[in-house]
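Now for a concrete sample entry.
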Amino acid sequence: MKIHKIGFIGGGNMGSSLISGLCASGHPSSQIWVSDINKDTLDALAEFHEVNTTDDNQAIVEAADVIVLAVKPQMVEGVVKALAADIQKKQILVLSIAAGITQQNLAEWLGSDVAIVRCMPNTPAMVLTGTTVMNANANVSLENRDLAERIMRSVGVALWVDKESDLDAVTAISGSGPAYYFLMMEAMEKVAIEFGLDPIIARLIVQQTALGAAKIALESLHSPEQLRIQVTSPGGTTEQALNVLNEGGFNALVAKAIHAARDRSIELSAL
């Protein structure tokens, strides 16, 4: 398998997570380049991962077979316009992980003939358990799709959708999703402390319970509904708690929240 030269423009949280994942999966650090305006960020990446670092974005284009745009969304336009001519000349694959920046935006700034994959990772990528959903434009070859998938799979699960508009739904589910679980964990932890449990114990049992439930769901062939039924004994404590959640409109409230997140994602992409 060909070892591609991967260039990162931006070495912040998500960029550094991908670099960590690539190195952990065996990609040679000598074949990874990263640029950033923050010298401390570059120094840390060079020290911990022994990757090539620079403050010159142009050098990344010259060195790499594929570029990962990992800068803040408000910086993308300026960054890519300055590199557009050279990216077109090299016909280099561009992966964007910038939220709210559409393929149409990127095509306008880079050129309509550039191969672009828009990626929507989530924050668990920072601990190599992320979920990334991707959409490719018509210029992306099968080989480039495989390359994009291998890069994003280094920090977790990587999946494709056929329609870019589906990324708004993805944003509402997996992008914002960790916060939904944190809110539930926060609420459970508060109640555990109110019951008199030591705060350290309260936090640990909530965290481990969340981890265990997720692990069961991942490793089981059953749906979440079936798993819920399996752990709910008739007349028992779990059933009593679930009855209260259902009476309070839990499912409808979750649906309303996720619809609001998706609608906001659509609004932000249109700005």
User: Anything to note?
Assistant: Strands lie at 6-9, 32-35, 52-54, 66-69, 93-96, 116-120, 130-136, 156-160.
